[in-house]
């Protein structure tokens, strides 16, 4: 599905990003895998980039590497994120700024640095938002604001850079990754019970949706959002 393509994946060392890297490699892509720590990405079959996606310098480096190592860029998957759980009045300004930077501004920086190559290759951008973009969940004010912003930004970028570049956004629901490690069993079971699927999603199930949006199978899909949430938001609607 991605044979001969070059892809950048952020948040690539863990969870959904790691599953996307595996799937992209399986589909024949060459991958630049970006994360805060390059260590767990140190493998022969990909190019690891250690860096903070909220830093413009990281994106200059990524764009340079794509150009010099591969001479092209076809897919950008902006997926890294960070979360601080607290009600708005207890969230520090620094924590607010950091979450907006990593979870929203990073996509602006990424597209600014990579759009030239993406246009040349008639490429695809896939953003990872969240069901937090469409449903309020206590203790996530900055995270939700950033994820909601990503949905608008994705739509905006699709309009700005079409027809050359397609831009789409996935909205995962409860996916079993390390972000759930610190969350108690009762809260986990409540989230699972709130899905029509009756279980957590697997990172590979989000990777399948990202791969669809990244490849030519979705050639007439742009400016769209795709829920990958086991029916979590549908259950909310029916309540
Ligand atoms: N797991 C879920 O239930 C769920 C639900 C909805 C949305 N999401 C979204 O899916 C995406 C992936 O989440 P996950 O569950 O796989 O998380 P994860 O914590 O397993 O992986 C996130 C990765 O991003 C990296 N990262 C964090 N800040 C970074 C930065 N500034 N620069 C570079 N890398 C950075 C981390 O080091 C980590 O490897 C995120 O955008 C998250 O908001 C996850």
TrEMBL record:
Molecular function in Gene Ontology: oxidoreductase activity
SUPFAM superfamilies: NAD(P)-binding Rossmann-fold domains
CDD domains the record matches: SDR_c (cd05233)
InterPro entries: NAD(P)-bd_dom_sf, Sc_DH/Rdtase_CS, SDR_fam
Organism: Acrocarpospora phusangensis
Family label: Belongs to the short-chain dehydrogenases/reductases (SDR) family.
Name of the protein described by the UniProt record: Short-chain dehydrogenase
Alphabetical keyword list: Oxidoreductase
Domain of life: Bacteria
One Pfam family linked to the record: adh_short_C2
